[in-house]
Each structure stands twice: as C-alpha cells, then as structure tokens.
Amino acid sequence: MKKGEKLSRRFFLKTTGALTLLAAIPASLKSAYKQVKNFIVTEKKMAPLTVSVNKKAYALDADTRTTLLDLLRENLSLTGTKKGCDHGQCGACTVHVDGERVLSCLTLSAMVGGKEVTTIEGIANGDQLHPMQEAFIVCDGFQCGYCTPGQIMSAIACVKEGHTNSVAEIKEHMSGNLCRCGAYNGIVESIQKVATT
Amino acid sequence: MKPFDLIKTTDPKHALLQKKEQVQYIAGGTNLVDLMKKNIQVPDTLLDVTEALGHRIDKQGKAVQIGAMARNTTVATDAMILRDFPLIAKAVLAGASPQIRNMASTAGNLLQRTRCPYFYDVTTACNKRKPGSGCSAYEGQNRMSAVVGYSTDCVAVHPSDLCVGLAALDAEVHVFGKDQKKSVIPFEEFHRLPGNTPHLDNNLPEHALITSIEIPENPFDKNCAYLKVRDRDSYSFALVSVAAALHLDGDRIIDARLASGGVAHKPWRWRDAEQFLRGKSATAATFGEAARLIVGDLKPLTHNGFKIDMLKGAVETALGQCLHV
Ligand SMILES: Cc1cc2nc3c(=O)[nH]c(=O)nc-3n(C[C@H](O)[C@H](O)[C@H](O)COP(=O)(O)OP(=O)(O)OC[C@H]3O[C@@H](n4cnc5c(N)ncnc54)[C@H](O)[C@@H]3O)c2cc1C
Ligand code: FES
Ligand code: FES
Q1: Is residue B100 part of a domain?
Q2: Whose CA is closest to B203, among B214, B213, B193, B218?
Q3: How many Å apart are CA B1 and CA A70, to the nearest integer?
Q4: Deepest in the core among A59, A101, B149, B174, taking most CB within 10 A?
Q5: Distances in Å between the alpha carbon of B36 and those of A106, B1, B113?
Q6: Nearest-CA distance A171 → chain B (Å)
Q7: What average pLDDT score do residues B243-268 get?
Q8: How would you class A146 by CB atoms within 10 Å of its CB: exposed for 0-12, middle for 13-18, buried for 19 or more?
Q9: How many C-beta neighbours within 10 Å does residue A49 have?
Q10: Nearest-angstrom CA–CA distance, B302 and B147
C-alpha cells in the first residue's frame, strides 16, 4: 500500500467523519433548541380553515388561537376592522357573521368556518358607498374615525333589527360601541336618517 | 394565550367522552376567549359544542325548555318568552350589548366567571383564581363586591342578569353527566356560596354538560320588572339589580318573587320579603316595608355601603314598575 493512498484514505475518513459530525451538530442543536422552546412556550397548533369574507372564499392554515379580528387584519390584510380593547368592551371590532353583528375579537376564527363574514370593506357597492357610510359623512358621525367601522357595522344591524323607534332605543341598541371622541349625537342622527329613508 | 387544539363535535355523548382535565367546552366564547387571553383559563383543548346541543325554545306541557345553545338574543326576542316569561326577556336585554347577546349562549351565561377586578388581575391574590392565595377584595377595592352571603375567602359577585330572572322564576338546569346520566338541578342550588372553596362557582358536576333550562309555568307574566343600577346607562355590569314579579288579585298580592344580582356570589332570592308581601295590598307603603326588610340583612364591606340605599330604592322602584306595565 502506498503512503499517499494511506494518507488519503485516512484523510477521507477523517473529513467525512468531521463533516457528518458538523452536519449532525446543527440538527441536534436545532431539535434541542426546539425541545427547550417547546418546554417554555407550547408549540402553536395550526388548523385548516375555509371562510368567506365579503363573498370571497379563503382557504388557509391558521393558528387555532387566531381570533376573527386578527385573521382579518393580520392574515387577510383587511385592516378596516379595528382593534380597540381586544376584550369585548368597546365594539370597535364589530363585523357581521351570517348577517348578525358580533365582536370579532372574542370570536375564534376556527369557529367561523363555512360562515359568511361581512366587514366594513364589504358594504359599499363598488364606488357607491353604503347609505350608512353616506349618512355618517353627512351627519358628522365621527371625529377621529377609529371607532367608525365598528359603529357603521353595528348601525346597519341596528336598522335591520328595527331598533330605531326613538333616540333612547337607538342609544340602547348602540351601547355596545364606544366612541372616545363622543360623536354619539351624529351617530344617532345617521341611524335615524337611514331608518327613515 | 396558550396554544390549544379545537375539536368540533355534533354529539353530546362524544363531547362527554372527550372531556377531561385541561379540556374545556366552548359555546359563544364571549367569556372563555377573554379569560384565555389573560391566561386565567389555560385549556389545551377546546370542544366546540355549539352544534352538539339544542338551541330551540319549546313549550313542553306548561313549562318552557330553553336549549343550552339558544343565543341570548334569541331568548330575548322569542315571541313565547315575551308573552309568557317577559321577566326573562327583560333580564337578558339588561345584560351586555347586542353584539355579545348575539354570540352568548344560555348555558355560557350561567357559567360565566365573576368580574371581580382581582380575579382578572393575575398579579394579585385571588382564591377564586388561585386557591389559597388570599382574597384581595375583602379589604381592598370592593365597591363592586358582595353585601350578603360572602366569606373572608371571597367577596365576588355573580355577574349574570339572566340568572337573576331564572332564580326568581324557579327554573331548573338540565344536565348531562360524564357518566352519560341526565339529571336536574333546581336553579337555587345551581350556583353556590363561596365559603372556603370559592374556586367552585356552582354545583355542576365535574365535566358535565348543561343541555337546557326549564322554566315552569307561572302567573307572573303580567306584573314583572327587571331593574338594573350601574355605573352607566347600558353595557355595564350591575352594581345591584332586582327582578320583581307580582301575582295580583285586584290590588291584593297573591304571590311575589324578588331576586337580586350584584349582591352575592349567586343570584339571591329575598324569601322573607316575598313572604311578607303575600296577602298585602300592592301599595308604595307595602313595597317600602319589603325593601326595608331586605336591606336589614345586608353586611356591606368597606367600600360598598352605598349598595344598601341603592338596593332599597331599586326594590321599591322595581315593585312599583310591576304595577305600570
Ligand atoms: C364586555 C362584556 C359585558 C358583559 N355584560 C354582561 C351583563 O351586563 N350581564 C350579563 O349577564 N352578562 C354580561 N356579559 C357576559 C356574557 O353574557 C357571557 O360572557 C356569556 O353569556 C357567556 O356565554 P358564552 O356562550 O359566550 O360562553 P363561553 O365563553 O363559550 O363559555 C363560558 C363557560 O361556560 C362553559 N360552557 C359553555 N357551554 C356549556 C355547556 N353547555 N355545558 C357546560 N359548560 C358550558 C365553558 O366551558 C366556559 O367555561 C358581558 C360580557 C362582556 C364581554
Ligand atoms: S376590540 Fe373587540 S370589543 Fe373592543
Ligand atoms: S370617532 Fe374617535 S373614537 Fe369615535
């Protein structure tokens, strides 16, 4: 056996060994890291979801923790729906599910599979604003505008439900939508305007 | 929020089989999702029971059965409820907001947790959230807390309005147990007093499902009122609330029902005042006497002494409203 051959074989064995080791280190490190991470933070659970938003069908994988609000804003880039409190206390996140007003911040997206969601982006007819949107503009139904998408979605439902017989009735049935700017009078007027035309 | 699996089931038996520690039922999610966001409840699996249980409102004989999944809005707008059990509709409409009532189920309303600020603040001691840690409210900011039936271990109140109406009308809770057996719990025995185990809100057997609520026929459809006093006109939990109902013969009171929210760990029936009202004439003086009888039982804490006058006024007003419907 020639010296060169011997060396090269040893060299070959050494390098392949080292390379395998090198390749193995990151893998085991990676899984060790994953194990430690999973020990500290539980691995997120993904689930397939099909949902229709503004009559457009979406199919995606979503973290089961995703609320409908976060799904709309973060996954579908429909940022018209606003996050105020994220705890059911302000109404900024109001959307319609199967035609009824609900709070998207307390709705798990995994539970709206197969349902029809309508957001503020879905109520205009092309360039033609929804009558409630027109009314909010005419009646000064907002100041900063942050609560407005929720107010408008709630207002449309309020009219549909028929709770517009008096100012007191409108106020009671719009009480789930807070307005930090206090545009309440304009909001009530907008609703009266739509209800009577 | 801790990651979790979500399983949808359409069969209550299947739901019961899957139910164990760390698995929780979910209906409207209006209370559970909120508590999960704050890591106060940390299930690793949610069982969606919205299609496993009934949501219909049916007359069965002379009683009404309200399915566990009947939405609060559905209950409050149901024609038969409005005609025969209007107190229930009034109580539901006094609670939460239209959006939340569209989501919230009947069963979930019974099982909602307290709104005591210390229960919600995970940096403070709370025996209900963490047994043995102490009650921060007992000597803390307790203006929302109980004035009757509390213990040094817990002064939290049950936040539901619907439950006050159900307590007044002697409802029953229909239950499907882990052992797949059905049973019935009288409403007054459903929620419990805190004692030294305030982490238990009620006597629903472990893992059991609520399947429906039954309300017996009653003569209180004509003269009833639900009065809720709160920090703002609407969309706020009760400081005190009163469900009042009278069965009248002319101005003579044949029977009366009085219950309150915002005063105790459970919806509270004022049995002595009901007894006092029977046989009396329905006058402001009689109502004033009944109200005085009620507040005689109260033991307010450091910051909620105002609830005495508030409740007295609320009882008188609610009884008065029973005559003007
Ligand atoms: C901002 C705000 C204001 C509110 N104001 C009021 C108010 O003024 N008055 C009032 O009464 N309520 C009020 N609520 C509370 C609301 O009514 C309750 O959150 C609601 O009724 C709970 O019903 P759910 O179906 O959403 O329950 P979920 O959140 O889905 O469930 C609540 C609990 O019930 C359990 N559960 C649900 N269904 C069953 C079943 N069939 N069998 C066994 N266990 C079950 C769940 O495991 C969970 O522990 C308010 C809520 C919010 C967020
Ligand atoms: S963001 Fe949903 S109610 Fe405030
Ligand atoms: S317009 Fe500013 S919060 Fe309503």
Answers
A1: no
A2: B193
A3: 13
A4: A101
A5: 10, 6, 12
A6: 9
A7: 98
A8: middle
A9: 21
A10: 10
Residue B75: closest CA among B61, B47, B94: B94
What was the pLDDT predicted at A34? Answer: 73
Name the residue with tokens 């947790």: B113
Q: Do B237 and B262 form a contact (C-beta atoms < 8 A)?
A: yes
The CA distance from B109 to B164, in Å, is 11
Q: Which residues contact B50 (CB under 8 A, 6 or more apart)?
A: A111, B26, B27, B28, B69, B105
Which numbered atom of ligand 3 lies nearest the CA of A179?
4
Q: Residue B316: which pLDDT band, with cuts at 50, 70 and 90?
A: very high
- Contact (CB<8Å) A102/B102: yes
Chain A residues whose CB is inside 8 A of the B37 CB are 86-87
Inter-chain residue contact B4 with A65, CB threshold 8 Å: yes
pLDDT in the model for residue B227: 98
Cα separation of A78 and A74, whole Å?
8
Do the Cβ atoms of A111 and B50 come within 8 Å? Answer: yes
What is the total count of domains within chain B? 2
- Tokens representing B232 are 């703002």
| ipTM score of complex | 0.97
Distance CA B109, CA B90 (A): 15
Q: How many residue pairs bridge chain A and chain B with CB atoms within 8 Å of each other?
A: 86
Can you give the CATH number for the domain in which B304 is found?
3.30.390.50
**Yes or no, beta carbons of A42 and B3 under 8 Å apart:** yes
Domain CATH number, residue B13: 3.30.43
Domains defined along chain A, listed by start: 7-40 (no CATH), 46-122 (3.10.20.30), 131-195 (1.10.150.120)
Residue B253 near residue B280, CB atoms below 8 Å: yes
B134 lies in some domain = no
Give the three-state DSSP class for B186.
strand
Which residues of chain A fall short of a pLDDT of 70?
Answer: 1-13, 15-27
Please name the member of B37, B50, B103 whose beta carbon is closest to the beta carbon of A87: B37
Are B137 and B152 a contacting pair, CB within 8 Å?
no
Would residue B176 count as lying in a domain? no
* List of chain A residues whose C-beta atoms are within 8 Å of the C-beta of residue B99: 91, 94, 101-103, 154, 176
- The per-residue pLDDT for range B222-232, each reduced to its tens digit, is 999 999 999 99
Q: Name every chain B residue with its beta carbon within 8 A of the beta carbon of A161.
A: 98
- CB atoms under 10 Å from CB of B313, counted, come to 16
State how far residue B269 is from chain A, nearest Cα, in angstroms.
Answer: 28
Q: Does residue B159 lie in a domain region? A: no
